[in-house]
Every structure is written in C-alpha cells, then in structure tokens.
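pasting for the record
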Amino acid sequence: MSQKATHSSESVPNLARPTGRRVELGSGSGASVTQSLDRAFHLLGVIAAAEQDLGVSEIARRSGLAKSTTARLLKSLRDLDAVEVTQTGGHRVGPIIGALAIGRAGSPDLIRQLARPILAELSEQLEEHTTLTVFRRGEILYLDQVASPSTVGAADWTGYTHAPHAAAPGHVYMAEWSNARLERYLASEPVRYTESTLVELEQLTERFEQIAIHGAAWSVGEFTPDVSGCAAGVLDAQGDVVATIGTYAPTYRFPGERRREDITDMIRNAADEVSALIVADIA
C-alpha cells in the first residue's frame, strides 16, 4: 500500500460495517410485555427510592416479586443501561435514566444537532473523517459522521454499531464502568477482532488509566487491523459521558508526522465544546 499526499480510495482500508443486536424487554403477547414493563418500572422505583445500593434478594423482598423474576428483569434493565451494578454487587439507577431525568440532554437528536458544526470544523482541521457516537443497548452507535473533502472512499458508519471494547469511542464509555460491570462484560468472552483487540482486564485497565490522564482514548488496529482512531467524551451537566467525538484513519498515515498530543488536544477541545453546548441548552 503506497503512501500518497492526497487520500485516495485505494489508500483507505476496507472498513467492515458491523451490525448491532437489539435487546428487548419482555417478549410474547402484548399482555406479557405490558406486565414485564410494569414490573421493570416497579423495580426501578424500588432502586431509586433506596438510600443505599441493593442486592437482588433485597430488591425482590421490597418489590414483592419472586427472586428469579427480579433477577431476569434486572438483567434486561442492565442491558438497557437503566440499572448498573456497583463494585459491591449492589444495584443503582443507570446512566440512561439520568439522561432522561435531565430532559433533552441525552437526546440523540439534540446531541447530533449541537455537535454537527463542531464535527465539521474538526474534520477540516484534521483533514480526516470525524464521528459522533452514543452508547445504546450495550453497543457503540455511530450517530453522525462528517467526511473530509481530502479523504475519499472511507465507509460512512452512520447508523452502524459495534462492541465497545473494539475501538477508542467504546473505551471512553467503558472507562466510566464499575469493576463489577467490566468483569461481567469480559466474562461474556467478547470477540477478539484482531491480534490487537483488548479483551483482558489488565489491558483495558491500563487503557482506562491513559484516558484518565489524557482525556481521550487511542486505538490502533483493534477493530480493523490497519485503522487507528482517537475519541474523547462529551459530558452532560452531571459529568457523565453521553457521547464521543472522534476520528479514524489508516494507520500507515495516522497520526503520521503529526504529534498525538496535538490531535488529542483538538479532539478533546471539540468534545468540550459540545459538552458546554449541552449544559447551556438545559440551563
């Protein structure tokens, strides 16, 4: 693969578009789905009203539901990010509920609207494609992408999903997880897409430490062998990550002669701009 001053379609790797899975709360007849929803909201009410994190047995006792039913519903709620497990094994209300509680701040339409001009400016600065992602149903959803005029032929990932452990945007979200949630995710034996994919606790913990230091994540060949990327978190008024701003490009020329620190700063600053707009919108 030859290096070229202008980015041609031949110089862009064939980026596979992963498909995402759908998580459904309840199945079967309309009556059973309604019953499952009623019970799930009841459990959320029990968890939200508690002064401390609750285990499965205590949630079952307070809700009046069977322990097996409670465990099944809690799993569905965890898959939807409506409930999360703490390091002590207790349950608390998850990030998606917090986003709903503050109104439009977690709305994909709002995030896309506020981020679009900043994505375009960042793309022009980097001369690379830039992306906006959100975390939905356990996966990274590419909400928007701005193509660089100087880069031709790379796939548009808008509307596609992939597992969070496979690239920089996902690591930004995972860095916020509790140890219990991370261990549960790794216990599911996530796919090793390439030799560089991080699937070990020690590897991911080291990556998360770097995110804490630099405010952004870098990945190199972890989903597609010859693609590198960088992403930073967009925060809501509570300081929770509700989206990421990032970029990706062929590893042979990215970052190339450019300093990683400079690219990190540009992406982090863009994410901070979107964060400020989100906070201002709900103020």
